[in-house]
Specification:
This protein is mainly alpha-helical. The protein is built from 5 helices and 5 strands; from the N terminus they run E-H-E-E-H-E-H-E-H-H. The chain has 2 domains: 156 residues, no CATH class; 44 residues. Strand 2 and strand 3 form a beta hairpin. Helix 1 runs antiparallel to helix 2, helix 1 packs across helix 3 and helix 3 packs antiparallel against helix 4.
Length: 214
């Protein structure tokens, strides 16, 4: 069952590989958007999706527009916290490593924009629903949140004793220790009963010999 979990180093490697792929794809698509969407929106799926170049200095829906320093600091702190978490825990579920990979990749993709120009480059525009224009880094962050929610739901599923998520390795070892103590206790009780039985047999045997002698 332990093979279902990754060591901290494998989890970190998985996270960094996914994050690198996300960042590279995000940078390429943003570069292409700035090259080809300067003349206006380009239809992609009629009535569903098109490409529309936009720049956002805030969060979604333009919230806190112009707060460049704030967003940079928050991104750096959150990224550091995610990486430190991967390093301080000895084992991680693969789904968590994947989720953090998408999270780190999305954060870094938009962080590069904020550091370089102060505004995030967006170009994906949904037509079937009123939603802010976004990019691949935003999509990566959404995927990470969805995976973390899935992981949270799975954590409520009952698991065999001793596995992380159902009390962890500590409780598993504690349960094994209690079982060993119970087994030792039962063994000691059995030995005591055996000695008592042997003593009673010797006592009855001695009385029988005295009666025969008499």
């Amino acid at each position: 069952m332990r093979n279902r979990y990754l060591s901290r180093w494998w989890a970190l490697a998985c996270c960094l590989v996914i994050a690198t792929i996300v960042v590279v794809a995000d940078r390429i698509t943003k570069h292409l958007a700035e090259l080809h969407l300067t003349t206006g929106p380009e239809p992609f799926i009629p009535g569903f999706l098109d490409f529309h170049l936009a720049y956002n200095t805030g969060a979604a829906w333009g919230v806190m527009a112009g707060a460049r320093v704030y967003f940079v600091i928050v991104a750096v702190v959150v990224l550091a916290a995610a990486l430190v978490y991967l390093l301080i825990q000895r084992r991680h579920q693969p789904l968590l490593a994947v989720a953090l990979g998408f999270f780190v990749g999305g954060c870094v993709g938009n962080l590069i924009d904020r550091v370089q120009t102060g505004a995030v480059t967006d170009f994906i525009h949904t037509l079937f629903i009123e939603f802010p224009i976004f990019n691949l880094a935003d999509s990566s962050l959404t995927i990470s949140v969805a995976l973390l929610m899935l992981l949270l739901l799975l954590s409520f599923v009952k698991r065999p004793e001793g596995l992380p998520g159902s009390g962890g390795q500590g409780e598993g070892e504690q349960g094994q220790g209690e079982r060993r103590q119970n087994e030792q206790g039962h063994s000691a009780q059995d030995q005591e009963r055996l000695r008592q039985d042997q003593g009673m047999r010797h006592e009855f045997s001695g009385k029988a010999n005295e009666d025969d002698t008499a």
